[in-house]
Every structure is written in structure tokens, then in C-alpha cells.
Amino acid sequence: MKIPPFLLERYFASHEFNVRHLLCASDCESMSVGELLALEPGAEERFSRQRLGYTESPGSPALRQAIAGLYVGTGSEQVLVHSGAEEAIFLFMHAALQPGDHLVVQSPCYQSLAEVARSIGCAVDPWPMREQEGWAPDLAELRRLLRPQTRAVVVNSPHNPTGFHMPLAMFREVVRLAEERGLLLFSDEVYREAEYREKDRLPAACDLSQSCVSLGVMSKSYGLAGLRIGWLATRNTRLLEAVAALKDYTTICSPAPSEFLAELALRHRQSLLRRNLGLIRDNLQVLDGLFERHPERFSWRRPLAGPVAFPRLKGAEVESFCDRLRESSGVLLLPGSVFGDRDNHFRIGFGRAGLPEAVARLEKALR
Ligand SMILES: Cc1ncc(COP(=O)(O)O)c(C=O)c1O
Asked: Does position 114 have pLDDT exceeding 90, yes or no?
């Protein structure tokens, strides 16, 4: 298999663990194993008795049940657990696509959502999002992009990196289009439940139609990326079986300690979400202040949901700005070029503690 480097992951591989202030993370603040176990009496005792043998390949029944609790019309049998969302993307693409298929992918995007399909020999068209339109993609443009060879449409809401979130009517129309044309809709919902207002939460795509596959993960809204637990949920049984058959060649099954902890975390997810949404709200106010004070340096479009946004730097080249900031102040921002962006945007992340100090350092560096 030939696939180009994953630019965002390579950038993080070079810098993530060498800087003092990570101001571009897309996940929310994490917690220790001890803190997680303390959420439930007896959990520590049970965890210490967890056997470390192989686990069930689709995921433990208890974990799949807990995941199915996030959906209304999709049951635990329709959930397939993976090692992070990344494995799920890779295996979905390999199970669903063939060389020559055509895909439309909401863009800019997390690179694997387009790149894995390209590496299989598919033609990929971006469904563009533009800053001047509040990052909203255009439904008429999506209709125009569909061809007879189109096999799947890929969407992501809340969106990384722009912070855009689809209105319900737009999301329903995308689902309707997929159904009407007999396409698969791959809905990357890894930032689901990180909406600032509960009423903005979209239904999970897997609950809306059999044509849809929902992607979920413990990493983002729940802040538990180190568990490496993600999943696909779909009522398309044939597709799920095809993905499961490929998983035998990648991870086979998930780590038992991670399955235990993910299930525990999902049972207490409201308390994790309360903490992380609190951080997001407070941090957004700090960012509002920063961008209000420096309108000549940045253009700021407040995100609609999730822990990331995509401001634009004015008057300097964003990659060298990020390099200088990292070297002088130990603050890491992510240049938009890793998303293929050519308009001087950068990603900022605000789901973690410590943001006010990182912003203070950034502001000092501006002066
Ligand atoms: C939109 C999107 N999908 C999938 C992933 C992969 O998630 P994970 O690293 O937990 O596998 C990410 C991670 O940044 C993401 O932003």
C-alpha cells in the first residue's frame, strides 16, 4: 500500500511532547486511571481483577451495550469496537470501497478521511467549506459533485478543524441524498456531545438510515484518547461484517483494560462532559478576548460546537509564525497547511486546562 504521510500526525510527532503549551489539541482534558475509577464505588477492585487475555473481536458485550446507549435506534449488535477512530476509518474505507469508486469528502478534513480512499485508488472530490460562508458547505454544490460512480459521502460535524456544526435541516438533507442515490454516508461524529447547547446535538446518522455509518470515539469529548477505543455503528449488517473480517488483520480485538475503562467512562459520561464543556466555555471566553484585542492580527469566526477552531493569521505567513511562536514561547499552534489549507489559517484547541496561560504567552509573543 502506498499512502502519503499524514501531515497532522507527523507535525504532532515532532512537537506534541516537546512543547510546554499545547494550544492546538483536538481532544478535551484527560484524567488519570485513578480519577476515572473513583467515579464508581467498587470499580478499582473490579479493575484489579480484570483478566488480560484476548477479548471478543467486536468488542465486549458490556462495552457495546454502553456504546449503543448513545443511540436510539441502533443496538449493541450493530456496534463494532476499534482501536481508536483511526482504525475504524481505515477499515471502513477498505471494506466499503474499490479502485475506481468516487467519494465526496467535506473539506478541509482530518486527512485520513480522504487519503485512505485515495490510496485505494478512489477519486476523491472535496465538498468545500469556506470561511466567508461561516464554513458552511453548500448543499447544491454537493448535489453537483455526485456522479454515477459515487460510492460514499463523508461528513464530519462538529467539524475539525473549523468548529462548524451542521444545522439539523442540512444534515437531514445529506442523509436523504445518500438514501436517494444509494450511497453510503460516513458520518464522523467523534466530537458529538461537545455541542455548547444541547439543542444543537444532531441525531446520530446511524439512527437515521441504514445507508449511514456513525464513527465515535472516547478520545475527544470524553478526553480519554489514551484508551484507544473507537467504534463504528451502523444498521448495515453486511458492511459491518466486512469491516469485522478486515479487523482480523489489524488489531483482532481491543485491550481488555481499555474496554473496562471505556465502559465505566460511558456510564459516567455526563460527569466527564460537564467538566469538559465547562473548560470549553471558559476557554472560549479567553479566546474571544484575545481575538477582540488583536483584530489586526487575526480573523476569528467563533466555532459553533466542539473543541477546535480555525482562525486566520493576517500580515505574516502562518507556518513561520507557528515555528517562531513554538521556539520563542513553547506554545504549539497547528498551521492549516497540514489540512491542505492555503489561506493562512491555523487550528486552535480549547478543550484543555492551561489555556489561559498559553494564551497569555501567545499574546506576550505578539507584542
Ligand atoms: C475528525 C476526526 N476523526 C477521527 C479522528 C481520530 O481519532 P483517534 O485519534 O481517537 O483515533 C480525529 C482525531 O483528531 C478527528 O479529528
From this structure: yes
